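Hi team,

Filling in the usual template for the complex we talked about on Friday. All components are listed, including any nucleic acid strands or ligand strings, so the model treats them as one assembly.

SUBMITTER: L.P.
PURPOSE: interface mapping
COMPONENTS: two
RESIDUES: 684
SEQUENCES:
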Amino acid sequence: MALRQTTILAFAGGVGGAKLALGLARSLPPDQLTIVVNTGDDFEHLGWHISPDLDTVMYTLAGLSNPETGWGLAGESWNFLDALDRLGGEAWFRLGDRDLATHAQRTRLLGEGLPLSAVTRHLCERLGVTAEIVPMSDDPVRTIVHTDDGPLPFQEYFVHRRCEPRVRDFEFLGLPSARPQARLLEALAGAERLIYCPSNPYVSIAPIVNLPGLQPLIASRRAAGMPVVAVSPIVGGAALKGPAAKMMTELGLDSTVIALAEHYAGTIDGLVLDVVDAASAPAIELLGLRTLVTNTIMATDADKIRLAQETVEFALSLKGHGDTETGRQGDRETGRQGDTET
Amino acid sequence: MALRQTTILAFAGGVGGAKLALGLARSLPPDQLTIVVNTGDDFEHLGWHISPDLDTVMYTLAGLSNPETGWGLAGESWNFLDALDRLGGEAWFRLGDRDLATHAQRTRLLGEGLPLSAVTRHLCERLGVTAEIVPMSDDPVRTIVHTDDGPLPFQEYFVHRRCEPRVRDFEFLGLPSARPQARLLEALAGAERLIYCPSNPYVSIAPIVNLPGLQPLIASRRAAGMPVVAVSPIVGGAALKGPAAKMMTELGLDSTVIALAEHYAGTIDGLVLDVVDAASAPAIELLGLRTLVTNTIMATDADKIRLAQETVEFALSLKGHGDTETGRQGDRETGRQGDTET
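RESULT (copied from the run log):
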């Protein structure tokens, strides 16, 4: 399937986002795709700067990611971590021996004064990634998960505590003074479509879209004819990966694609949902969103490419925010696609 | 061979020193041996504090050292370093995956405010080392090698430049304000014998003995009956390991055990030299040193234990600095031992 000539901006978090990002990168030439990645999960560990989402997207696009976990490197060894554990060190964050080199090199280059975006470009070049991966900001943002056990830095919540504490709220330290990375702003100005990858809406997409000044910019681009399409990370009432569904429940919401649509309503134009949630499509349409119902499970690279291409075609079928007439047309077109998939 | 009840203080650098330290540790109960290790080779690399000599002694005494190299861990993997090299990182210092955990944990504990001596004790406990290993100082000392290519931090000279630049002089940054570690002072006060392991006299033993106040303390202990014995790292005109012989040549000295004896003359009482240098013993005796001629090559653990025990027996055969009469007796006794070995 050949995609029409278009320019795509995608926002992504970790594993789920990286899968769609791979599909997009395999479907579009490098100069027509910009992948902006959440850095709210970044943290300092053992003296090194770790950017889990950037690494997941980078490793995935480099063809180096671990297909079992989605994060980390394929064929990784764990000798460092085993030895650290033996020495009584902090071994809760899974650092593979090869992965560790990424953190060492990133930390060194940051220490030399390079911004995170330049460091990311350098690492991508070294790993042979041609698609453009951009951290959402060169300024530090640190996600804090407020829980019944108190506030927890994201990796403490996510990895050390295995998402067990009950979530109350989220806070993004540094966000009010973080500047959207320049390439994000440039790409947004030029993009024909904006895609939210199937990433956690609260801790992956929210830190990006809540960067100062970004929401008005996205709104104005929508008004000027750039639809925004999200791919649902919620499938059949559960999250494919990570704590999104658990978070929704703990926040007093249903962990359904309809609740996800309500979360995004007013800020996006279309939602891609899984065939198992096909019955929810009419309710989502009533919220003013167009829908594409398709198989959103990305088990293989072929799945990732197919979903990316269907998502782009769906986004291209939508017209801007204001254009209801053509929007309906896109909707009907989409309905057919969805029927074929189910 | 059962050693007489005695208390030994040993000064050591890296590989050669660690071998004799192992022999001593296998021959004496833990409360009768203190091994003080050079920290002038320490450096900061990739944001971590690395203590090469402490690690070599610790790994050796833990039975974990690489028998091929003498440094690093047996059965080590190099996936971190290979990945770092691929990323264009600083891969010249050979950091194995398991070894890296030692640096991570040391750096973390130092960052928590623990002194290097306490960190070393912790690491030794974790690795099952029962002998006492003490860094010469908790204060930073950094060896600079002045060369024809300018001043080089020790690891830059030793590892990165492979000891190739011609040596002019040595400088120990921080040494004038470094305090000898408290356990070094306590052990010196109580030791019956002080042994300089077969380590580089310029960059391993010199930083220790030149700690402020230490030379007068050693001299007063010698006067009070604590002989000092050195084991020669120079065998047949070459260094068994490392650049000692090359340094001697570049400093305008002969790279011989006699030149080594001249270096130590006046500050030690006895010298253990190899059988291949037996002909040099009379000249060394003329410098006022007693000698033990024996096989100093430590290929196996049995060699290390034998040399350690012979060295201790030799040291016990010597009396303090001032006691010439008994010194001669020790000398004769030693001569017999040496004859037996040769």
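MY TAKE: Chain A has 14 helices and 14 strands. Chain A has one domain: 8-147+173-341.

Thanks, L.
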